[in-house]
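Same chain as my last thread, 430 residues:
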Amino acid sequence: MLGEGSTGDLESRYGRALAGKAGVPEHHRPYYWKWLSAFLEFCRLRHIDATSMPGLDLFLEGFRKSGRLGFQVEQARVAVHVYWMHCIPEGMGTGSPGAVESLPRVVSGVSGNWPMAMASLARELKVRHYSAKTAKAYLHWVRAFSVHAAETLPGSVTVESARDFISRLAVEGKVSASTQNQAFSALLFFYANVLGLPLEGLERTPRAVRRQEVPTVLTRPEVHAVVSALEYPYNLFVQLLYGCGLRLNEGLMLRIQDLDLGGGALRVHNGKGGKGRTVPLPKTLLIPLRKHLESVRGIFEADLKVGYAGVFIPEALERKLPGACRSWPWQWVFPGGRLTVSEGDGKLRRFHLHETGVQKAVKAAAEAGKVSKRVTPHAFRHSYATHLLQMGYDIRTVQEILGHSDLSTTMIYTHVLQSMSGKVISPLDV
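reply #2:
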């Protein structure tokens, strides 16, 4: 394998590759070097060629069995890929026929294997600031498509293959229209931004028509029944969803600096579509929110004493404002119940309440409150909009407060309002 004299040189070249061509953040690079060193040592002890795919597969299999987390396994895989692409010393063997030709390369529409295509997709999604949920969904569908494409390399897939995959989802997978459309959007992004393949025909693939569902709207007594059955802090959180017309993630992502209790306003940053807006805070929640923030302050100060690394914030912001993650204004309004280990640096950080926990709490509270409707956290946003229209606010005002780009999206609540108005009398009641 590598002699002693070449180790320092390799580490230097590998560090430059991580910083430049691979674009790995500085605080992640020591982990990449750690995994690569473990891989090279693994190959040396077992007399395995460090440029062979079977060698990497064997290493990662043992890596998983040793109890490493999923993100660490994937990080180790990428670490070796970077080494293969940019740092293989001259004269090293290939391990098996065709191994060098099969080494991962940057996907450019001509070459590359599926693991590197997935890495490129993740990078493109991140560069374009797609939300974490959208990125996760796109990665899922492209990974499923790679299984469908079988032995075909990414650069060789055809539009027909993608169209067949989309059709099979509906016919054999029996997925909903929205799911099929999400998979279609994922492949459209993948073909255009990762593979660089022509899209003639793909954009003309028949797409399922999503049915316009009538939103679930709760009456005021039903809202009160659900809130009364919730325990702290979920009761306050749901009141904020209803009182400000927030989406679930908008409420979860609130930070201390987003609340202007003195001005009676709440700021939503990076809402759906990356849009922001300001909405009025209910006066009845000002005192409960102040008490809640006192409790959150206590959690924050206790975290600092145990070596807390800070809340999760975007990497770009953390580089620009290194101390922001440990400052009070950037803390979550609704922090999670325990500290978690960051996947990136292994440090203790605080995340916000988990959306699944809120959903389960709301469902249980609806059952306890004997509300017969299907109640989800989003139902409180629907109820907020409908109740505003009942109070006489015009549709444009409601559109602005909800953050809708298209007025037709807001218009659905006028239809709900008409059905609830009692103006149309059934013939059975005459």
